[in-house]
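Reviewer 2 asked us to include a model.

Predict the structure of this chain.
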Amino acid sequence: MLSLSSVSSTAFTGLAAPRAPRADVRMASIEDLPGAGPETQGKVFDPLGLAKTVPYGSSQFEWMRTAELKHGRVCMAASVGWLISEAGIHFPGYLSKSADLTFAAVPAGVAGWAAVPMAGKMQILAACGAIEAYTEIQKPHYLNAGMPTAGSGSTKTERRKLSELKNGRLAMIAVAGFYAQSVLPGSVPMLPAGW
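Predicted model (structure tokens):
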């Protein structure tokens, strides 16, 4: 789903050459964006210097921040789903009556995707594409709204935005860890061997 999200959003926004920073955007430091907090001493954690590849204030930077939020949301749902699946909790009934496949018979982890019939996979991908297309056609488009700022951080809305961003980042790390452990057992020592 992650790759579908990035593919469909690039299909609507285009892959044009990077543009110069927009004139209507208040040029400030990247530290003004939500996400830099006490865990990083108030600085942006970017050890690879990826923020330098897309200039702050450009529409590509806005696209990257929006992609980060979208991927964080998907990973928050995926991490909860992965944990529930690993705990052995399943929906009652059939996933596919024609394939005689119950939800309980679907294996946990990465093997679960392989067990889903092709028609089910296509339905999942079509639903993801429809959701992505719906968000891309909203007016005004999110890339025309200007750069997000951290604000004062005193309102509930600002705290919720910051919580969503940080929880999404943690969920992306969690899903990457779950996947690594399932593909390379023992690669994440804190996770059980069966993942």
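The domain at 2-183 is CATH 1.10.3460 (Chlorophyll a-b binding protein). The radius of gyration is 20 Å. We have added this to the supplementary material.
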